Amino acid sequence: MINFLKIIFSVLFVFMCYKVISTSLENNLFEQWDFLGSIPWMRATLWDFYANIFIITLWMFYKEKSIILKISIVILFVCLGSIATLAYVLVHLFKLKDGEGVKELLLRR
C-alpha cells in the first residue's frame, strides 16, 4: 500500500508542477486576478481550497513538533497549494521504515 501511495503521490506531484509551470508561462495570474475574482465558481474554488488547507494544516500541526517548522509549512501550503501538500506527504511516505504503514504515516512519532 505504501509503495502504491508513493507512486500515486509522485505522479500527482509531477503533474501539478507541470500544470502550474505551464499555466504560469501562458498567463500571468496577477493580470487575470480581477477577472477571475468576478467568477462565482472561482471564488467558491478558493473557499474550497482554503477549507482543505485548514484541514491539512490541523493534521500537520498534530504531526510536527517544531513551531518554526509548522509556520513554514503553513506558508508553503497556502502559497503552493497541492504542490506543497503532495511534497509534505511524500517526505513522510519516504521516511517510513520497512513494515510501517498508513497508521504510522498518519500518527505522530
What this model shows, in words?
This protein is mostly helical. Helices cover 83% and strands 0% of the residues. The chain is built from six helices and no strands. Helix 1 runs antiparallel to helix 5, helix 3 runs antiparallel to helix 4 (67-80) and helix 4 (67-80) packs across helix 5. The longest helix has 25 residues, at 2-26. The chain is globular. It starts with a helix and ends with a helix. The model has no long low-confidence stretch (mean pLDDT 91).
Largest sheet data: none
User: Helix share of residues?
Assistant: over 70%
User: What is the strand content?
Assistant: under 5%
Q: Based on helices, strands and strand pairing, what is the structural class?
A: mainly alpha
Order of helices and strands, N to C? HHHHHH
Total count of helical runs of at least 4 residues: 6
Question: Could you give a short description of this structure?
Answer:
The protein is an all-alpha fold. It has helices at 2-26, 29-37, 40-63, 67-80, 82-95, 102-106.
